[in-house]
Amino acid sequence: MSSMVASLRSTISPEIGLDLGTANTVVYERGAGIIISEPSVVAYNRHDEIVAIGHAAKEMEGRAPGRIRVVRPLQRGTISDFRAAQTLVARLVDRALASRPRLAPRLIACIPGCATDIECKAVEQAVRAAGARYTTYVPQALAAAVGAGLDVTSLRAQMIVNIGGGTTEIAIVGTAGIIRMSSVQMGGDFFDQAIIAKMRTQRFVIGAATAEQLKIELGYAGRPHGNYGAIVNGIDQDVMAPRSREVSAQLVGEAMEEGVEHILRSVRAVLERTPPDVASDLLESGITLAGGGALIAGLAAEIGARTNVPTMVAEGALTCVARGAGEILGSPTLLERVRPHADRFTRWYQSLRIGMRESYSP
Predict the structure, then answer these.
(1) H or E stretch including 302?
(2) Could you give the CA distance from residue 147 to residue 319 in angstroms, rounded to a whole number?
(3) CATH number of 189-255
(4) pLDDT (average), residues 28-33
(5) What does the alpha-carbon distance between residue 19 and residue 131 come to, in Å, rounded to a whole number?
(6) Under 8 Å CB-to-CB from 28, ≥6 apart: which residues?
(7) Strands 50-53, 158-163: parallel, antiparallel or unpaired by DSSP?
């Protein structure tokens, strides 16, 4: 009977997991899977009206006329444009659930570990303003672990590395909590900018979309995976005119090397602070990679070789966070164990009163 009630409730009031990411916003409905995955981009006109979101807005980036302003409402995992973030969430949730009549959804969002209390509250308010009947949030690392299929309630420690667009979350989880964690402002956007900068040293200017394409097609960690390349279009600074040029995988790999090294050092730093018994568990459970950055060729092998800990890429790495959030929301017992305690809101209110910014440490 309880399963029937749960099914009826989820039909009329869907349970939604939301990964409001720097690069992409993913909407997951428990029982239906991933229903929306769109770039976190919003386009305004000169009257400050929103004219496009998601893929439509991203296609305008770098091509829009002066009367159109294209913005990314999240920077490095936190909200930089509250109104745009609110509209993005509201429209994507409405689009995802427009096919059937419903009550307002129950929604859970994910918060990066580097976010302050006030930034956490901003995400919650944006989600609530988007029309959710019930909303809460959980640490991004725990959601990624659940979405990757890890049993976060187990006594055995497990490690998750979630490489997103703006941040990389490195966490050791166990007993429904985080044992050790580091959140660094390094992700896919950094790699894109590094590729653009590298191409400028070759006197060839490319846009962000082209850099992202090169990252996906040619990016790697460790040793090059061949002598292949790709033809891209841009501006040749020697003649100051549009040209096509072949870009080698080695050049892209060199551009990404600094970011890869930063992630590797951060993973090692977390492992170095790990208690002996936890380290023993990790030799058996290994390291799981999630997020778009997990798909960089050779990264899992490089982390495994540098840490001597077995490393694998989670299935459906791009959508682990949203999937995990949805599954947590659908399990009241797990939700109660992993979400921030009520006293966090008391501390947040106190931090406003005394003008402090308290770091989030679950």
Answers:
(1) helix 299-307
(2) 8
(3) 3.90.640.10
(4) 84
(5) 16
(6) 16, 17, 18, 19, 34, 35, 319, 322, 323, 325, 326
(7) unpaired
Say how far apart CA 338 and CA 27 lie, in whole Å. Answer: 20
CATH architecture of 2-141+320-354: 2-Layer Sandwich (3.30)
Domain extents in the chain: 2-141+320-354, 145-186+257-317, 189-255
Q: Is 153 exposed, middle or buried (0-12, 13-18, 19+ CB in 10 A)?
A: middle
The model's pTM = 0.84
Contact 218, 247 (CB under 8 A): yes
> Residue 81: pLDDT band by 50, 70, 90 thresholds?
confident
Assess whether the region 2-141+320-354 and the region 189-255 belong to the same CATH fold.
no
Question: Do the beta carbons of residue 42 and residue 57 sit within 8 Å?
Answer: yes
CATH superfamily, with its number, for domain 145-186+257-317: ATPase, nucleotide binding domain (3.30.420.40)
Helix (H) / strand (E) element for 287: namely strand 287-290
Q: What is the Cα–Cα distance from 182 to 180, expressed in whole angstroms?
A: 7
